[in-house]
Amino acid sequence: MFRGTVRKVIPLVAFGIGFASFPKIWRKDHLENRKISNINKSVIEQIESTQEYQSLLNNPELRQYTSSKAFPQQHHNNYVNTGLLFGPDLMEIDPIVFINEKKGELTSFYHLGDKLISQDGQIHNGIISTILDEGLCSAGFPLLPSRKGVTAKLSIDFKNQAPPQSTVVLHAKVQEAKGRKVVIGGYLETLPFDSKEKPLLIAESKCILVEPKWFKYFWWLQV
Questions:
Q1: Are 75 and 143 in contact (CB under 8 A)?
Q2: What is the C-alpha separation between 74 and 28, in angstroms, rounded?
Q3: What is the mean pLDDT of residues 201-217?
Q4: pLDDT, averaged across the chain
Q5: What domain count does the chain have?
Q6: What CATH number is attached to the domain comprising 190?
Q7: Helix, strand or coil for residue 74?
């Protein structure tokens, strides 16, 4: 019993000390709005012209947002998609997301530039893994009790490598939701702008998302 109490108390105390030490970082009213510049508008226009985008846009069950607005501003600089790896020839757009929170279904669009390649000249699988982790978790968060959680397991089956300057689309869907555990499946493929082209399947993935018990005590905090 003593060990169990210690395991619960220590993380809460440590978190509380950190929060008290850096209050301005965690308070939204002390944050400046971060303007995302250098967005590749031509890619966005191409995405918006596709039948898939238009179908999602006209679906009343879906909510649309851009990826950078889905998390607290204090994390923007360390965020991958619109922070560390955002810019010309990197991740060139603020990912466009459509989500049905009740069903746990999500579709999101990305564009991957020339500087995201590995030694073989194709998009690095680490980028693909990051997209899958983020996207599948985003689909599962709304079905957790406090709408927050962490990745317990992420499995990825790489099928093909994405070429540089690829526009890709992620499809994610919750397969199981029970208490503090959600299982999400999904796949990433290229988005053809020519109706004669077929999508290239890049990877399939499965994610197990869990909500730690102590998260319920910080439901009010943007983490």
A1: no
A2: 8
A3: 90
A4: 83
A5: 1
A6: 3.10.129.10
A7: helix
User: Please, which residues have CB within 8 angstroms of residue 5's CB and are 6 or more apart in sequence?
Assistant: none
* pLDDT tens, residue by residue, 174-196: 999 999 999 999 999 999 998 78
Contact 43, 194 (CB under 8 A): no
Which residue in 2, 210, 191 sits closest to 108, CA to CA? 191
Give the CA radius of gyration of the chain.
19
User: Which helix (H) or strand (E) element contains residue 161?
Assistant: none
Stretch (H or E) spanning 107: strand 105-112
- Domain assignment present for residue 14? The answer is no
User: 3-class SS at 141?
Assistant: helix
Question: Could you tell me the residue range of the domain that residue 181 belongs to?
Answer: 31-218
The sheet with strand 150-158 has its strands ordered as 63-66, 96-100, 105-112, 166-178, 181-190, 201-210, 150-158
Per-residue pLDDT of 131-160, as tens digits, reads: 999 999 999 999 999 888 899 999 999 999
Confidence band of 1 (pLDDT split at 50, 70, 90): low
